[in-house]
TrEMBL record:
It is found in: Cytoplasm. Keywords: Cytoplasm, RNA-binding, Transcription, Transcription antitermination, Transcription regulation, Transcription termination. Coiled coil: none annotated. One of its GO terms (molecular function) is DNA-binding transcription factor activity. SUPFAM superfamilies: Nucleic acid-binding proteins (SSF50249), Prokaryotic type KH domain (KH-domain type II) (SSF54814), Transcription factor NusA, N-terminal domain (SSF69705). Monomer. Binds directly to the core enzyme of the DNA-dependent RNA polymerase and to nascent RNA. One of its GO terms (biological process) is transcription antitermination. This is Transcription termination/antitermination protein NusA. It comes from Malaciobacter marinus.
């Protein structure tokens, strides 16, 4: 084991791990191997001496009083397991080894791992490899948990019978479930695609599982950030977003810079930017709405292209639940407010987190009063105008 330090450093470099983690993995594997080869009830410990480039294994004995019951081998631990008396040494025996030892200290007996045989080396290798793999998985979990809500790119490696798509992203594989795929999309092996990381977890049988999505509103937001520099630089803020994947989406935009038009910046010249994003979303139509801190104004804008007469929001909503609003609209604007198959009102409700109730008024009634007043004014003014002509 003369080259043990060089080997550990090499493993840490190749696997992208910390040297301390690799050392810890080896020590734990060595202790587990010793317990299996000697006695699982004994206490072992291991140290790595980087100065002398040595791996040390030893058995630990706790120093106890001469009359301690644990020395007799009849005591039980908290789990009702018999305590091994070989894990203890009485104070008198300990003093013979080192006169400075006190009750509660420990005595270490060196063990030679090489004397445990070839079978021990095989067990150590398997235990060490398992520990290293766990550290690699933990690092990947941390890495991809930090990427939740962010875009990743990969190539399709497999599509199963349930139409789940498996994508290779660097050193790991991710899964795009059918439910997270935009309606109408079909992928085949070799295709490259973008998606947003939705969840990261470790399964006991399957290992690391990275779930990605193309239907999440976060995917739309991430695409906009990629396409629009003002959003990436935080000069424009995406306040909220709502999607019905593959059909339509709405995003609420705001900015504190007076010289920036948030909607115009996202749409781009002749709609170039928004068209590129829509193409990535399989032709999904995207509406840009200017955000307002006034709820009534925000809701009115969210229902565009419909023209709203008034908005009344119920202020007594239960925390954690959608608020309720009554929106009054002219009858000729109702179809625009609802939208095709109800898409517009559903998206507006999702965007503003408000349950919307439409209250319809007749457009002719709203205008009749104004028309009658104008007609009366014209009648009264007509004789005066005629008389003025003959003066």
């Amino acid at each position: 084991m003369d080259k043990i330090i060089d080997i550990l450093d090499s493993i840490a470099y190749e696997k992208g791990l910390k040297v301390e983690d690799v050392e810890q993995a080896l020590k734990e594997a060595l202790i587990k191997t010793a317990q299996k080869m000697v006695d699982p009830s004994l206490n072992f410990d291991a140290q790595i001496d980087r100065v002398n480039k040595k791996l040390e294994l030893f058995q630990k004995l706790e120093v106890v009083e001469n009359n301690d019951e644990r020395l007799l081998g009849n005591s039980l631990d908290q789990y009702n397991n018999l305590i091994n008396p070989e894990n203890f040494i009485c104070i008198d025996e300990a003093k013979k080894i080192d006169s400075d030892l006190e009750v509660g200290d420990s005595v270490d007996y060196d063990l030679e791992f090489e004397n445990m045989g070839r079978n021990a080396a095989t067990i150590l290798h398997n235990n060490f490899e398992y520990k290293i793999q766990r550290f690699i998985e933990e690092n990947l979990v941390t890495k991809f948990k930090n990427k939740i809500g962010k875009i990743v790119n990969g190539s399709v490696t497999r599509v199963d019978r349930a139409e789940n798509t498996f994508i290779e992203i660097g050193e790991v594989k991710a899964i795009l479930p059918r439910k997270n795929r935009i309606k109408g999309e079909i992928f085949k092996v070799g295709d490259h695609l973008k998606a947003v990381v939705k969840a990261v977890k470790i399964d006991k049988s399957l290992g690391l599982i990275i779930e990605i999505s193309r239907t999440s509103p976060k995917f739309l937001e991430a695409l906009i950030a990629l396409e629009v520099p003002e959003v990436k630089d935080n000069r424009i803020t995406i306040e909220a977003s709502a999607r019905i994947p593959g059909s339509r989406a709405k995003i609420a935009l705001s900015t504190i810079e007076p010289n920036i038009d948030p909607i115009g910046s996202v749409v781009g010249v002749k709609g170039v930017r928004i068209s590129s994003i829509s193409q990535e979303l399989n032709g999904e139509s995207i509406d840009c709405v200017e955000y307002s801190t006034v709820p009534e104004m925000f809701l009115s804008r969210a229902l565009s292209p419909a023209i709203i007469s008034s908005v009344v929001i119920d202020k007594s909503a239960i925390p954690g639940k959608n608020s309720k609003a009554v929106v009054t609209i002219p009858s000729d604007q109702k179809s625009k407010a609802i939208g095709r198959v109800g898409l517009n009102i559903r998206l507006a409700s999702m965007l503003t987190k408000t349950d919307i109730e439409l209250k319809e008024i007749e457009a002719t009634n709203a205008l009749s009063g104004f028309a009658n007043d104008q007609q009366n004014d014209n009648k009264s003014a007509a004789p005066v105008d005629l008389e003025a002509l003959f003066k």
